[in-house]
Amino acid sequence: MFPFPLNTLSDDYRHQLDSWTHCMAVGDIPVTGTESVQEGAADGVREFIDGNVEKRIAKLTTSAGCLRGFCPAWEGWTAEFVRSNPPPAYATAVSDCLGLLRWIRSHADLTPEQRDALEGQRSRLIVEQRVRRDRAGYLKFSRRFRESQDQEIRWNEHTEILLNPSCTPALFRTRLFLDEHAEIPARVFSYAVDGAVHTTVLQGAAARIIAALCPRRRVTVESLLSVAMHGSERDGESDVVEALEEVVQSGIAALIPELEFHSESALPPRFP
Amino acid sequence: MQSGHLPRRAALPIPRIGLAVREENRDVLTAPAVGAVEITFERADDPLRMESYLNPDDFEYVSVHSLKLSIASADRPRRDYLDALRSVIDENRADAMSDHLGFTRHGNDGVEIGHFAPPPCTLGALDATCRNVEFLQSRFAPLPFFVENIAYTFQFPGTMTEAEFLCSLFRRTGCGWLLDVTNVYANSVNFGFDARQFIADVMPAARRLQIHLAGGFWSEKAGRYIDSHSDPIPAEVWDLYEFALKEGRGKIDAVFIERDQNFPDDQGWLDELAKARAYAGGA
After folding, report:
1. Dihedral of CA A147/A153/A159/A162: which sign?
2. Contact B91, B60 (CB under 8 A)
3. ipTM of the shown complex
4. A33 interaction partners in chain B (CB closer than 8 Å)
5. Is the pTM of this model over 0.95?
6. A135-259 adopts what CATH topology?
7. Looking at the domain assignment, is residue B2 inside a domain?
8. Which residue of chain B has the CA closest to A191?
């Protein structure tokens, strides 16, 4: 029995569950063994936990198996992670996989390219996690995105720009996923829109627009331009306009139509 | 005007007969024979999905069936899980929700064991389960909540029978019973009790019911009936279903056929639906 006093039935039950779940989560018979289950039922417990570890590894492989090509030791890392880390309560395939990636980064000696591969996958999984936490925001943004695909983008300096709520930045330090002309380190953005997760590299004015959007998530074109055109790396107005259209068309950001257009609005927009 | 009484069965509503939704039976879901559908929350919980899992306009009764509320845990389910569950319920305009009598984890910061284990039939477990069910009923009101009896491969020692535990749970919380007929059959075979007596004992305590039907197989190797949802519903389960229909007459909201392996063709689904409906008096 337990080596400490139990005050209430609920306390007793809580401690029982604590003990049993920790054992079964890693594929063991509860520590108290057959004393905790009815006589002769240990086989039933084995049957209950049999295959759980394999199922977990299969889910992890589904979520991040794409990394195997970059990491020859992937299977070994996954097996060690599963053996030493019971799945946390409410673990989903995504959250468990994020735990695995954290574990690998802290336990394995990774090459810079492997770090980029893990970083890219991590940002995509975080996107899925963010969408799950704010599905309403994701659906609303995706509807905006669909609408914007069907019409000409019209805006002026008072138009507000909304960052995709799932947008997750990452930094690539090698050219593993980049072409030979890309600057490194490169700012990479993963985001979900209209049923899919995308990852894109933004550089120049587009990267500065998203960097300006990130802290506030929603700004006017006017304030965005003041940052993009008056920072240390100045962009020309046409560069900014082009970059803004790029991020809107890709689904990283959206224009908010409710507040659109002063009566004098026209294309191209007039900026200070 | 003709005098006399209508047969009792005809005077009472016939349960809606339907399917637990799987990708493999999507083509038959809109057949007239399908009067109800059960959505497994964990299958529908794809946050990237742009549309609802089902078009709720196609069905007269939708129930959302979750796997990880872990109602026998000592702690309440965590808010983010409940929020995601709420999204699926709302998007599919569910009429009811359900989960299993079991625990899948300990604590909200503890560990997960993958699938539901049977709680010990003790007062401590009963208190915890009742607290969780009352919390869920309050949070999701007015949606009715049903608790499913599970098939188990072992039991922890307890101070009451499973039937007594379920009766106390239903009486204290007023929640419904998702009577998984196949689970009762499997447990009765594997643990040597009278399945009909079990149903007769629990039925008076349940205000409303849903029913699950499925087919498993007898494993010589394991020496037990395996509730695998892999086979046609066996004759013994149909018999027990007929008994449950009589015992629960007038308070059964829906019947769902489950299948997770060795899927039948469209006609196979429809044949089992027709049989379930015929037993319920709706042929």
Report:
1. positive
2. no
3. 0.81
4. none
5. no
6. Outer Surface Protein A; domain 3 (3.90.930)
7. no
8. B48
